[in-house]
Design brief:
Blueprint lengths: L1 E2 L6 E6 L2 H9 L8 E3 L10 E2 L1 H4 L9 H7 L4 E3 L3 H15 L6 E5 L2 E5 L10 H16 L3 E6 L2 H7 L8 E3 L5 H7 L10 H9 L5 H5 L3 H8 L1 H9 L16 E12 L2 H22 L3 E10 L4 E12 L2 H12 L8 E11 L15 E2 L5
Parallel strand pairs: 3-5, 8-9
Antiparallel strand pairs: 1-14, 2-7, 2-8, 3-4, 6-7, 10-13, 11-12, 11-13
Length: 366
């Protein structure tokens, strides 16, 4: 069997409960205990939960109140993002010992293309195992990994044997793997889309594969084409060694809901200061300012304005944010405010030249 899609050796490394694991690493008294990073018992949102807490249904993005209700023994830990960033850089330095083709998705996960690698090791499976062992031996943290012929399958595979495990999906196993996969586990199929697919009789990859391109286009628009190809193992997205930010922002969740615009303006000034710091550090400016408002009932609203010039100054950012705040009457008390800047001076307008696909034999050992 042949395919005109270039096969690569892709590893997706995903740290296990990263923020919570770092906290347990730095404070041994927290080991083996249910902890939640971020939020607080009465106010705030959980950023991460240890595996001990997950057993009680505690999840990221859950309110601190509900998390504590699910797990009365839950310990809240204040996030230390500078520490997580420090550890993340050390993890990436390990990645770069094997390949320069590293695409970070966040502080705790990344894609690596090891088709050609610095170690001259033909086995992506063994490289993933070695990387995970080094992360544990050098940093004391566990990582899981997925290995396959493209980013889509590697990311799905990294979830299979979590925590502290890995899974390889070889080329000859790809089609069966995808056909047997529950549709809710497909990367890019969220909760709403999953429910829609269920109503259409699509429960597994095999069900999805049975649908025509026309059917998927008519029911899912542009995403239909994506679903049509990935279920056939076709996902020709190369690992990008550097990602250009599309937006930069800062936000704050408050311990008490705010109902006064005067108090909100004080908070916005602090947020604008932080955003300016991040912009200057990255040497970036932008034209589109977006104000993010999350109400006490968790309803999320955004208001945006695009200027004719680039800005990075906190005063100009704050001035526009104030204008957006007063643009409409507030619907409720506010638990979170955020400001972000998009339409950046780093945006690339030109199209990248397309790579020619090469015909390769499916005999390809991982």
């Amino acid at each position: 069997m042949e395919t005109n899609i270039p096969l690569r050796k892709i590893i997706h490394v995903d740290m296990d409960a990263f923020y919570a694991s770092v906290e347990q690493l730095d404070d041994p008294t927290l080991k083996g205990k249910p902890i939640a990073v971020g939020g607080a018992e009465k106010r705030g949102v959980v950023s991460a939960a240890s595996y001990e807490a997950r057993k009680f249904g505690v999840r990221s993005a859950m309110s601190g109140y509900l998390a504590k209700k699910n797990c009365p023994e839950l310990i809240f830990v204040k996030p230390r993002y500078s520490r997580y960033t420090e550890i993340s850089k050390k993890i990436r330095s390990i990645f770069f010992d094997y390949t320069d083709l590293v695409e970070p998705l966040s502080l705790d996960e990344a894609y690596l293309d090891v088709t050609v690698n610095k170690k001259g090791n033909p086995s992506a499976t063994l490289i993933a195992k070695e990387i995970r062992e080094r992360i544990y031996n050098e940093l004391g943290l566990n990582a899981s990994a997925g290995i396959s012929i493209n980013k889509f399958i590697a990311k799905i595979a990294s979830d299979y044997n979590k925590p502290n495990g890995q899974k390889t999906v070889n080329p000859e196993e790809v089609l069966q793997f995808l056909e047997e996969l529950e549709i809710r586990k497909f990367h890019g199929v969220g909760k709403v889309t999953t429910e829609k697919m269920y109503k259409l009789g699509i429960f597994t990859g095999k069900d999805l594969k049975a649908k025509s391109l026309e059917f998927l286009d008519s029911h899912f628009g542009k995403s239909g084409r994506y679903y049509y190809y990935v279920v056939r193992g076709i996902h020709d997205s190369a690992v990008k060694s550097s990602r250009i930010a599309k937006s930069i922002g800062a936000e704050r969740t408050f311990h008490e809901n705010l109902s006064s615009e005067i108090f909100m303006l004080e908070r916005l000034e602090n947020i604008a200061n932080e955003l300016e710091r991040r912009l200057k550090k990255s040497k970036i400016a932008g034209k589109t300012i977006t104000l993010k408002i999350k109400y006490s009932d968790f309803t999320l609203k955004t208001r945006s304005k695009t200027l004719t010039y680039f800005i990075a100054d906190k005063n100009l950012i704050l001035e526009t944010a104030k204008e957006l705040l007063y643009q409409e009457k507030l619907e409720n008390s506010v638990r979170l405010l955020g400001i972000s800047l998009a339409n950046l001076n780093t945006d690339k307008k030109e199209k990248q030249p397309q790579k020619k696909a090469v015909t390769v034999q499916l005999k390809f050992d991982l």
